[in-house]
Design goal:
Layout lengths: L3 H6 L17 H8 L12 E3 L23 E2 L6 E20 L8 E6 L16 E4 L7 E4 L8 E8 L9 E12 L4 H22 L9
Antiparallel strand pairs: 1-3, 2-8, 3-6, 3-7, 3-8, 4-5, 4-7
Length: about 220
Amino acid sequence: MSHNHSHGESCGDESHGHDHHGHDHGIPELQGHRDNLWSYIDRENTVVLNAESGKGSDVIKTWDARLDEEVFLESDADDQMIIRIPFTGSVKLRALLLKTGPTDQTPSKVALHSNVEHLDFSDIADRKPTQEFNVVQSRQIGEYHVMPAKFPNVTSITLFFPASQGADTIKIYYVGFLGSWTERKDAPVVAVYEAKPNLADHQKIQGMDGMTSAPQH
């Protein structure tokens, strides 16, 4: 069981955080790029509760910036934190990526709640998470593989960090996700409903033939 740490360290522990564009780092780098859902995260609407400063989007960094320690979230009143991260479509989640800490500022656990519109500290501790993990102390990226059957159609993920590993506060440097993305399942349904009242508008535009430009409808 002691070999678990060596697997995480093999993913570039000698890179010293410089990465050199990631082209010569082999398969671990490519895995991070290929399935990384960064471009499908709605960063503008990412929310963090109990952060001393900063926005939730501060830790939604690009893959190349994942080891950066200049920008982070640190908890405020205690060692708990909630981050709610919406996606721009439907996601089939495969793994959560985290960089936290260091040492006892590392969260003890992370609880993942899928597709919950609103959670706060008054009710999240009583709600059963979709899945949770013990967080490993590391200066590298921790990759936590979820059970895909529990996350087949995810539009938002709420992360709850319930406690530190001993410190008064926790620090989060990087949050990322691996998986696959598709457009929202409900989008075609909305389009069908919208098409019915728009039929008359289209006929008018055709009849006027060029006098009304398409962008107006």
